Amino acid sequence: MCNKEEVMTMIELAKKLEFSQPKEAARQYFLAAEALVQGAKENPKEEQKYLELAQRSFLRGRELKAKPAEIRKVTKSNGKTNFDSIGGLEDLKQEIRMKIIEPFKRPDLFRFYGKQAGGGILMYGPPGCGKSLIAKATANEAGANFIQVKSSDLKSKFVGETEKNIAELFESAREKQPTIIFFDEFEALGGDRTDAPAHDKSAVAQLLTEMDGMDTKDQQILLLAATNEPWSVDPALRREGRFGVNLFVPPPDEEARREILQLHLANRPTEELDYDELADITEGFSGADLKAVCEMATDIPLKESLNTGKKRLITQDDMNSAVKNTKSVLKQWFGKALEQVKRRKLEEDFSELVKEARKEEKAGCN
Ligand SMILES: Nc1ncnc2c1ncn2[C@@H]1O[C@H](COP(=O)(O)OP(=O)(O)OP(=O)(O)O)[C@@H](O)[C@H]1O
Ligand SMILES: [Mg+2]
Questions:
Q1: pLDDT over 70 for what percent of the chain?
Q2: In CATH terms, are 89-248 and 254-324 the same topology?
């Protein structure tokens, strides 16, 4: 006899097991399908409904049995972001290791050599090149708590509220040491005071107060900030002892582009791809652009499969066509950045940015 409730439980169970135990899930789907066929015989009035459900259950079971492991892995989250999940940026990783991670892990050693931890690091560079990613990875590598604040979220229209938000933020960081506070889109908070309306200036003032007030007890709090408009960050915030260390996060070079593409395709079913060629034709792309290319290329065979029911691997042609259809904004950003930096006479402060922008300019002329 077919018990409808039992069958539904079987299907529920099968759904839950799809990912962790696909074989068992398939078995449950087949059993459910059998029971439903029986049910169709027993309930002539609802025969059609039973048979339809049986058919779906059977097909799902067969799909699971046929699925190669690589294709299933696609949906699995790749866990924690760490330095290995970031392509390129080797110098930056090294610098962050020395300035943040090791002092966090080995405070005694650093104290022995008279090195003081603390202060803040400002990362700047074009959009989509890994600033936010590296901040998150740093916290994981250092084994620290991570408070990420979108700088605009701290700002309030109400007088006095912004200061309160910032004070509360530092308070909760103190309670949870070791902690990294990451101010994302820092230009929104630390904007140049000469440009800002009066009540906005209070945010910078409060931040300065908090930073200057950090004492030896707060050694396990580290401040990271990121911006793609470094020229509009208040110079007072970039001074020694505050966000005194400024690190440029450059666009990926050829080697890094190859790594980023490999990282983003690692769990996807691809034919053997010519990564040297792909790294070559993606010159001028950011990490985010490369990710977009991988997504777009994956969608090509995926959409086909939805229509035809047949699966095929992601090919070099899919990648090439995705590259052709992706336009990077990096060049535009470098143009604007150079203009802003020059206008404010900040070439010395952001020399690496200027160097990279000149390189882009030259590449554009060729
Ligand atoms: N070096 C990299 N390695 C791997 N993936 C990268 C890299 N750079 C960027 N990406 C991909 O691009 C996405 C966007 O990068 P991220 O958010 O770190 O950029 P950002 O520099 O913070 O940009 P923005 O200035 O716009 O905030 C990441 O989530 C990641 O998928
Ligand atoms: Mg970001």
A1: 88
A2: no
